[in-house]
Write a structure and sequence with these properties.
43% helix, rod-shaped
Length: 333
């Protein structure tokens, strides 16, 4: 009987001490250590249970019932304390991460589209609206695509080293995006309508209106029955969409090896005429080079520098400003 009383006392003391320790703990890690201490496989409750074997058989159910009560009390205390600690931890985290929407935000300067890029985007948008497809090609070209297929003979001035950047392997940096037209026509049957934007290279002396590296945009249309009137009308519609109806425009007869007849287009800018575009009807030899029958199909083409258009559109007086990266200039756009 004395042993039974001792076990009962030990169990009551265990429950009292355990509940007090659980109530006093302040972290989830300490709480887990208490669980192991009291309810673990080698915990204090398991050690007390080891003494049950010494009790008479008739006394064991009585102690077993008390053990279950102590175990349930401690387990409930652990669970309740765990919930309380987790709730408190979440509340602290929420308070630490609270956002005061009345505070001023950190200043983050916004970027702007470069005037040259915005001009190219605007040109493409206009021609896509007219039913044209955007086409592109390589910047490093062969002599065939840059000159020969465009009806440019070997003795043409455009082949001179002063105009073209030739590479050691015999290729060159394209002087115009007209090469894209040839590549596109080789792979597509008429009717076609394309606009080809891209970077070009020429050995030009850099000044207020010229740059050795520049952006050119070409357009090409090939179909049955196209005439110079279609070309002139397309350019007029494009320029009016680009600059407005009030900008004076004129066409001047000119010469290009890959168009016949050919013309240059000028706009009035800052009190003088500024050439912005070359154009003409596609030369029959160019059509033959890509396998088109010039007796069936005709076409027109035009090409212009995006920099010149940006200058007119934004009233920029020097092409070099577009490449200066001067924030005082760029912040105006």
């Amino acid at each position: 009987m004395t042993q039974l009383n001792d076990l009962q006392t030990q169990l009551k003391t265990l429950q009292t001490d355990g509940m007090a320790a659980i109530d006093a703990t302040s972290t989830l890690d300490d709480l887990e250590q208490l669980r192991v201490k009291y309810l673990g496989k080698k915990g204090q409750l398991s050690q007390i249970l080891g003494g049950l074997g010494k009790l008479p058989a008739e006394e064991r159910p009585q102690i077993g019932a008390i053990v279950n009560e102590v175990k349930e009390a401690l387990q409930m205390g652990l669970d309740n304390k765990r919930i309380a600690l987790q709730t408190a931890q979440t509340q602290v985290q929420l308070e630490a991460e609270v956002l005061d929407v009345t505070m001023p935000g950190a200043y983050s300067p916004q970027g702007r589209v470069h005037p040259l890029n915005s001009t190219i985007d605007r040109v493409i948008e206009i021609f896509v609206g007219l039913g044209y497809t955007v086409a592109q090609g390589p910047e490093m070209e062969t002599d065939y695509y840059n000159f020969e297929a465009l009806n440019t003979p070997a003795d043409h001035p455009a082949r001179d080293m002063q105009d073209t950047f030739y590479l050691p392997d015999g290729n060159l940096l394209r002087t115009q995006t007209s090469s894209v037209q040839i590549r596109y026509m080789e792979e597509n049957e008429p009717p076609i309508r394309i606009v080809a934007p891209g970077r070009c290279y020429r050995r030009d002396t850099v000044d207020a209106t010229h740059s050795a590296v520049f952006h050119q945009i070409e357009l090409l249309a090939v179909d049955e029955g196209l005439t110079f009137t279609d070309l002139k009308g397309t350019i007029k519609v494009f320029l009016e969409a680009m600059f407005g109806d009030s900008l004076p425009i004129r066409f001047r007869a000119s010469y290009f090896p890959f168009t016949e007849p050919s013309a240059e287009v000028d706009v009035q800018w800052r009190g003088r005429w500024l050439e912005v575009m070359g154009c003409g009807m596609v030369d029959p030899n160019v059509l033959r080079a890509v396998g088109y029958d010039p007796e069936v199909y005709t076409g027109f083409a035009a090409g212009f520098g995006a920099e010149r258009f940006a200058m007119v559109l934004h009233q920029i007086d020097d092409i070099r400003r577009l490449y200066s990266s001067d924030l005082r200039f760029l912040r105006q756009f």
